[in-house]
Amino acid sequence: MDLAFVAYPGLLATMGGANFWSVIFFLMLVTLGVDSVFGNFDFYQTYFSDLFPIILEKMRREYYCVLLTAFCFLCSLTFTNRAGFYTFGLFDGYACGVSLLYCLLMELIFFGWLFGIDKLDVLLQKRTGENIPVFVRWVIKIFIPIFTIIMIIINLIGEFSEKKSIERGWPGWITGLGRLLFVIPILCGFMGIIPAFRYKKTINIYDLIEKQYGIRFNCNGYMDHSYVEVNAPKAAGGETELAEGVKNNIE
């Protein structure tokens, strides 16, 4: 906040044509904010519609979008009252720390290990003919997860330290409310796996890969990244047939 609304405006004031550059700078901030809102809103909309499919069964998507927008608007009014600056400080101090690091860690675990960056390398090679460098693979699988875990531990140690509590000087219930801002998103992340157990029609990621790339990973073992081509070119007789036994082992 200090960098965007104090340091940069002060720097722009010392430049020639300060009014022009100030307008350009704050237009950039507005477009960045709108872009973030679109991304977050699309995520929430898809999250709730996947978790509760009955929503789109009972109403059109346009009405669902309007209701969700109205709800977000009402929630955002808490930042416009006389205590709005303090509410913003609460969100800025808690909602943008551990929860974002947790989301990053989960993405790294999924793409680096559960699905496997080696499978992503297969898909990249299939689509573009290029490969993910070995160095990048190890950075995603080892270095960044370890670094992220260390940051989470440091954040939690600092959060629950007595020194920081004294510096803030907040009542206990305010501190507890702030901590809920990163605990609740983490718990909601686990709720996102419920559709996979409740609904049999949940789309499997390997089905999407088979449809888009024409390959099916064998997944016989954790380190097995071999695959079978399921959409082979037309045979001599003119009919499309499955390519049996066409396997590629990507180390």
What features would you describe in this structure?
- The protein has 251 residues and is mainly alpha-helical.
- The chain folds into 2 domains: 2-198, no CATH class; 205-248, no CATH class.
- It has helices at residues 2-13, 18-51, 54-58, 61-76, 84-94, 98-114, 117-128, 134-159, 162-168, 172-191, 194-198, 205-213; strands at residues 215-217, 227-229, 247-248.
- Strands 1-2-3 form a 3-stranded antiparallel β-sheet.
- α5 (84-94) crosses α10 and α6 packs parallel to α10.
- The longest helix is centred in the first third of the chain and has 34 residues, at 18-51.
- The chain is globular.
Q: Name the helicity range.
A: 55-70%
Query: Structural class of the secondary elements?
Result: mainly alpha
Largest sheet: 3 strands, antiparallel
User: How are the strands of the biggest sheet laid out side by side?
Assistant: 1-2-3
Name the shape in a single word: globular
Are there runs of 5+ residues with pLDDT below 50, and where? 232-251
Separation of the first and last Cα atoms: 46 Å
- Cα-atom Rg, whole angstroms? 24 Å
Number of domains: 2
Find the count of extended strands (DSSP E, 2+ residues).
3
Arithmetic mean pLDDT: 81
Give the SSE order as H and E letters. Answer: HHHHHHHHHHHHEEE
- Proportion of beta-strand residues: under 5%
DSSP summary: helix tally: 12
